UniProtKB/TrEMBL annotation:
This is Glyoxylate/hydroxypyruvate reductase A. CDD domains: GDH_like_2 (cd12164). Keywords: NAD, Oxidoreductase, Pyruvate. One of its GO terms (molecular function) is oxidoreductase activity. Residues 108-282 form the D-isomer specific 2-hydroxyacid dehydrogenase NAD-binding domain. It comes from Rhizobium esperanzae. The keyword Cell wall biogenesis/degradation does not apply.
Length: 319
């Protein structure tokens, strides 16, 4: 019997965590971690499976016999545009822990804006006892853009918190107790939204999508007064200069951003300075390495048993 092909790993995140988790993962076939100096120059021609996050530009020419590509995250935009990308299945990472982490972040940000936490932060620094009367969650409509794995979990848990939740996606979804809109109903969706939550993948359609024109269409007579923009999808979907001016002129009452046009966010970005903008460094929902490797092992086992792979992206749609 010929030896099983090792899994090629090129993950540009948390190198110590990846190296540690690889010690026990893929025990039947082994792995080649190109981030590790020992493996960096290895011959990749026989490799059949690659697990990638922002891989080296020459990876596909070095590994010309791949059968399946696995994304190290839920998004695949870091691979889709690459030169030499072979026409083979691309499987994205779908995992309970990743989904849960994202929902924690989304719910936390919605609550921070509901309760005007930035104003409390300012008062605290000034040692001021300044009570605020916040609306109830039920008075506020959260509009979730993207009703996929992450969007639907966020919707369910935002509802548990009492928010009125509506949702928008390319194709209409049916979710009990949630008014949903399809791509053609964007303006109707925005006009009902007080807090906009972006959980969209980056595709040509969603590039530069969150701009001043869109912010102006959000509801302005809701319980929060000024609408809020929250984005944890992809930074290249937002126009940051428009966010800065929308917050400055009051079109937006605040924002929460986990993703940015260019990451890391430049030290001189005006976003850092805005009191009512919460910034996190693209860590809303990190991929936990052990869970990621288990998911890849499961999918390879399915593939080798002749069963369909799960979570394969639609190359034409780009996600
Ligand atoms: P899914 O593929 O499960 O869902 C994507 C959703 O977006 C679907 O509802 C889809 O519509 C909708 N959509 C895509 N394109 C359009 C469009 N042009 N117009 C309207 N709706 C559109 O993805 P996930 O929920 O798993 O993940 C979403 C994104 O979150 C990832 O692609 C990634 O960019 C980001 N992410 C960010 C993380 C972070 O830490 N900040 C962590 C993990 C993911 P339809 O249902 O009709 O197909
Ligand atoms: C992902 C991410 O796509 O972490 O999983 O951004």
């Amino acid at each position: 019997m010929s030896a099983l092909s090792p899994v090629l790993v090129d993950l540009k995140f948390n190198p110590e965590g990846v190296a540690r988790a690889l010690k026990t993962a893929f025990s039947d076939r082994g792995s080649i971690n190109v981030a590790d100096t020992v493996d960096a120059a290895r011959d990749l021609r026989a490799v059949e499976y690659a697990l990638l996050w922002k891989p080296d530009a020459d990876l596909f020419s070095r590994a010309p016999n791949l059968k399946v590509i696995f994304s190290g995250g839920a998004g695949v935009d870091h691979i889709i545009g690459m030169a030499g990308l072979p026409d083979i299945p691309i499987v994205r990472f779908v995992d309970r822990s990743l989904t849960t982490r994202m929902t924690e972040w989304v719910v936390m940000q919605c609550l921070m804006h509901l309760r005007a936490q930035y104003a409390h932060d300012i008062s605290q620094r000034r040692r001021e006892w300044a009570k605020l009367i916040a609306p109830e969650a039920a008075e506020v409509t959260v509009g979730v853009m993207g009703l996929g794995i992450l969007g639907q979990d966020a919707v369910a848990k935002l509802k548990v918190m009492g928010f009125n939740v509506i949702g928008w996606s390319r194709t209409r979804k049916t979710i009990e107790g949630v008014e949903t809109f399809d791509a053609g109903e964007l303006d109707r969706f925005l006009a009902k939204t007080d807090i906009l939550v972006g959980l969209l993948p980056l595709t040509p359609e969603t590039t530069g999508f969150y701009d001043s024109g869109l912010f102006k269409k959000l509801r302005r007579d809701g319980a929060l007064g000024q609408p809020v923009f929250i984005n944890a999808g992809r930074g290249k979907s937002q126009i940051e200069a428009d966010i800065v001016s929308a917050v400055g002129e009051g079109t937006l009452g605040g924002a929460s951003l986990d993703v940015f046009e260019v990451e890391p966010l430049a030290a001189d970005s005006p976003l850092w300075e805005l009191e009512n903008v919460f910034i996190t460094p693209h860590d809303a929902a990190v991929s936990e390495e052990n869970a990621l490797f288990r998911h890849v092992e499961t999918q390879i086992a399915r593939f080798e048993r002749g069963e369909p792979l799960q979570f394969v992206i639609d190359r034409a749609a780009g996600y």
